Each structure stands twice: as C-alpha cells, then as structure tokens.
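User: Earlier you gave me the apo prediction for this protein. Now I'd like the version with NAP bound, so I can compare the two side by side. Same sequence as before, with the ligand SMILES added.
Assistant: Got it. Here's the input I'm using:
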Amino acid sequence: MFRKKKNQSTIEPQQVALVEHAQKRIAQKKRFHTHLLISLFVVFFSMVLNFAFDYKIELMPFNTYWAFAVGALLGILLLIHFLRVFVFYSFMGKVWEMEQMEFLLDKQAIKVEKLKRAMDKEAALKANAEWQRENQNKKVTMIAAAGENNALGKDNQLIWYLSDDLKHFKNLTKGHHVIMGRKTFESMPKALPNRTNVIITRQKDYKAENAHVVHSLEAALAFVEDDEQPFIIGGGEIYRQGLDYADSIELTRVHEEFEADTFFPEIDSAKWREVWRENHDKDEKHKHAFSFIRYEKIHA
Ligand SMILES: NC(=O)c1ccc[n+]([C@@H]2O[C@H](COP(=O)([O-])OP(=O)(O)OC[C@H]3O[C@@H](n4cnc5c(N)ncnc54)[C@H](OP(=O)(O)O)[C@@H]3O)[C@@H](O)[C@H]2O)c1
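And here is the structure of the complex with NAP:
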C-alpha cells in the first residue's frame, strides 16, 4: 500500500513506523464507517418492521407515518453511502486511501521533525554547558592599545610610547602564551622574554628565533590549549580574526586620534560588556591621557 516518494531510495525505520501508524489509522476509520452503516441499517430495518407488522416497539418516538419518512430518508442516505463506497469507490477507494496515507505521513513527519529539532536544541545546550564546564577557567584574551579612532600602528611601528601601558602589558602577559601575526613579530627587536611567543604566518618555511611558528589562528589556539589565559597581541589582521575566539579584551584606549595604517576592529556593544576601567591623565612620563578598559564577551 505504501507508495515511495520520488528520490526515496531506502526506507528508514522511522518511515516504516510512520507507514504502519498511517495504515492503522486508515483501518480505524474504515471500521468506524462500517459500524455507522450497520447502525443505520438496523435503525432502518426496525422502522420497516414497525410499519409493516405493527410491532409497536416502545422506544420508537414516532408514529408510523414519521417512522416511515425518517426510515426512507435514512434509506436514501444509506444507498448514497453504499454507492460511494462499493460502486463509485471514490470515498475510501484506493486513491482516497493513498491521499489519507500521504496526509497522515506528512502530519507525522512534521511531528518527527519537531521532535528532532527539540532534541538537537537540547543536545546543543548540553554540549555548550559541557564546553563551559571544561573551559570555565580558560580565557582567550586580546590585548591592544588603540587611539580614539582605533589607530594601532603606522609603518609597522607603534605610534606612541606610554611606559605605564608597557608595564600593564608586561604584568598581564608574563608567563603566558602570546599569539601574534608575522608583521607584529617583525616589528619587535626580538621575541618577548618570559612568554611563549607564537607567530602566525602563511609562509610554510618561516623561521622565527625563540618562537613557535604556526599557519593559522586556529592552529595557534590549539597550540596554547594548556594555557588558562593565552593572549592575542596583534596586529590589526590578527585582532580582526581573533574577535570571534576571544572571551575578553584588555584595551588601552589612548584618548586622541592618530594617523595610522593599521586599526583595531570596532567593539560591538551588543557583544561586549565593559567590566572594568582605570583612567590615567597625561603627565611628564605620558604624552597622552589613556584608560585601561576590560571587556568581557556577552555569551548568549
Ligand atoms: N597598538 C597595539 O596594541 C598593537 C599591537 C600589535 C601590533 N600593532 C601594530 O600593528 C601593525 C601590524 O599589524 P598588521 O595587521 O599589519 O599585521 P599582523 O596582524 O601583525 O600580521 C599579519 C600577518 O599575519 C599572517 N596572517 C594573518 N592571518 C593569517 C592566517 N589566517 N593564517 C596564516 N597567517 C596569517 C600573515 O603573515 P604572512 O604574510 O607571513 O603570511 C599576515 O601578513 C604594526 O604597525 C604594529 O606596530 C599594534
């Protein structure tokens, strides 16, 4: 009875269950219809008896004239049903059964799809909770200093010298892995001491003294897996890619606009929440006012 839909080469167990369920429902409907016909027939027959032999069945609420009229009406209806079911075969015929089957199959398929979606959602929530449990102490942090216009550097150099900012950078990153793009690495005289330097480049034969070389940001993050707080330290290209992976940003906002050729990406306030800030005025050691700002990613 089950007709395969186009492009359906194999029947999955769920589909077999759906077919069996649909067939059961059709049989139930058929049985209901048969019962209805038999009941109508009994009513009609008792009326005929009542009229023909004057049995005076006490429950019958009609006089013989009305009993005849109702019986005749039921008889006509019965005849119509009879013709439709057994002669014209349009109702409950093969085509009707097939339509019913497809209708029920579609209904069941929607239900199964809904269930699947609910299960997928639950699995995703579980996986996320597991990931959060495993990584609750791990925090990928981007650390940068940027002007009011997000300026980072020019001609592969930093634009300003702020000694307290360098101390801040040193204190936070000491003992950790620092991930940087090849250009930032080359802008420094040597690898940063007391930290594990990880350099990202697409050049397969690139060599860097006292540093580990990888060929993608993902490879860098895999390499620093055991560090509870690895730092992405620039430059512009790497910060842009790092935004998706970072959990926090340690930003030194230098309160001026600068001419630059490299910029920090825009921090979307819908995705990042400022959680800490410390302001510094300019003084004899610092040519520009600046603020240390910590952002945490807003996890949905
Ligand atoms: N203000 C700050 O806090 C700060 C911090 C750091 C840097 N900076 C400044 O930023 C500037 C440098 O930034 P930048 O954007 O020009 O360069 P960058 O991000 O330091 O390095 C870019 C290089 O990284 C490699 N790279 C990038 N994405 C990669 C990927 N997905 N897979 C493999 N390799 C990849 C490529 O190296 P190859 O070309 O070798 O393939 C690319 O040329 C300098 O001016 C520097 O002073 C400022």
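For your comparison, keep in mind: The first strand starts at residue 141 and ends at 147.
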